[in-house]
């Protein structure tokens, strides 16, 4: 039998101790060893954040419809390596046995009739904090450069006391033009 060094043994014992605790949720690999330890408080926090994000998306959708725009989920995404638009992958949740549809970027496409044959087509990305990741910024630049959208808005939540209001930031105004645009 192979001898385990002291530091590794302490790590394993710490994992085993946490695995038996009510504070952590543990998943196990095929060999019966603990793999992932998640704090139950963090799991609860994530669940609440996801639910709040979903409610905020519905609020943004309703706001855009009240402004007279036709709004729909955007089911496409951008493959930056190939430089082309692709159908967004669907995500399967094995716990609820549900398929998530509409995981595209940006979240919504919004259309408004302006004049005879002119339409305003904008993309709307909903973010509670209003901050885009580096990859999301690159995707926005690609959409604008290839004239898929005339404008991309970032909807963010602004607290006014207990009430949450929607504020829209234009992507180009917030992040500026880059060399690629």
Task: Write a structural description.
The protein is an alpha+beta fold and 181 residues long. The protein has a domain at 53-175: Trna Endonuclease, Chain: A, domain 1. Helices cover 32% and strands 35% of the residues. The chain contains four helices and eleven strands; from the N terminus they run αββαβββββββαββα. The chain has helices spanning 6-19, 40-66, 134-145, 171-175, and strands at residues 24-28, 34-39, 70-73, 76-79, 84-87, 91-93, 98-100, 108-115, 118-126, 151-160, 163-170. A hairpin with a 5-residue loop joins β1 (24-28) and β2 (34-39).
Topology of helices and strands:
Elements: H1 6-19, E1 24-28, E2 34-39, H2 40-66, E3 70-73, E4 76-79, E5 84-87, E6 91-93, E7 98-100, E8 108-115, E9 118-126, H3 134-145, E10 151-160, E11 163-170, H4 171-175
Parallel strand pairs: 9-10
Antiparallel strand pairs: 1-2, 3-8, 4-5, 6-7, 8-9, 10-11
Task: Jot down its keywords.
single chain, about 180 residues, alpha+beta, Trna Endonuclease, Chain: A, domain 1, five-stranded mixed beta sheet, two-stranded antiparallel ribbon, about 35% strand, elongated
